[in-house]
């Protein structure tokens, strides 16, 4: 609950600065506007203005989010999709975002992560395979791809 309710003009200036700082999803911006004490038509009007003035673009957000999480944190597609769904991004925008991850890079990253994890483990091959598989699943990679990558290491 805000200490005081912002006027529409004050909220507009603040939310534009908030959106200009980094890409945001619609739900994130909507929650911020509610935090400013705005509701109903005011929120809808400000969202429409932000979209019209290109401060807010959910496809752009999804593409940058997916590409960034893959490149910077080596997340798999399943984890990225899950995070985008949590942020209430549309299925269409999620599909567009997945195009930001080239298949060759994805497979290469998975194999590199598998080899690195495998190298840090000791013990029997079956235990190393299980631990590597769990690690890669936690990173959001698909099981068939993981099994193939781990199979190459054994």
From TrEMBL:
The lineage of its organism: Bacteria, Pseudomonadati, Bacteroidota, Chitinophagia, Chitinophagales. It holds the Pfam family RecX_HTH2. The keyword S-adenosyl-L-methionine does not apply. PANTHER family: REGULATORY PROTEIN RECX FAMILY PROTEIN. GO terms for cellular component: cytoplasm. Residues 57-98 form the RecX second three-helical domain. InterPro entries: RecX_HTH_2nd, RecX_HTH_3rd, Regulatory_RecX, WH-like_DNA-bd_sf. GO terms for biological process: regulation of DNA repair. Residues 109-150 form the RecX third three-helical domain. This is Regulatory protein RecX. Its main location: cytoplasm. Transmembrane segments: none annotated. Coiled coil: none annotated. It is found in: Cytoplasm. Keywords: Cytoplasm. Belongs to the RecX family.
């Amino acid at each position: 609950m805000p200490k005081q309710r912002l006027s529409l003009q004050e909220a507009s200036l603040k939310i534009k600065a908030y959106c200009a700082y980094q890409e945001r999803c619609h739900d994130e911006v909507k929650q911020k506007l509610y935090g400013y004490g705005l509701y109903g038509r005011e929120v809808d009007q400000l969202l429409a203005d932000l979209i019209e003035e290109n401060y807010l673009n959910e496809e752009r957000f999804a593409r940058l989010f997916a590409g960034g999480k893959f490149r910077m944190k080596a997340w798999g597609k399943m984890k990225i999709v899950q995070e985008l769904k949590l942020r209430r991004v549309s299925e269409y925008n999620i599909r567009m975002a997945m195009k930001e991850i080239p298949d060759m890079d994805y497979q290469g990253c998975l194999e590199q992560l598998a080899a690195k994890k495998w190298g840090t483990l000791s013990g029997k091959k079956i235990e190393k395979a299980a631990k590597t598989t769990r690690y890669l699943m936690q990173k959001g990679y698909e099981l068939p791809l993981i099994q193939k990558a781990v199979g190459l290491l054994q």
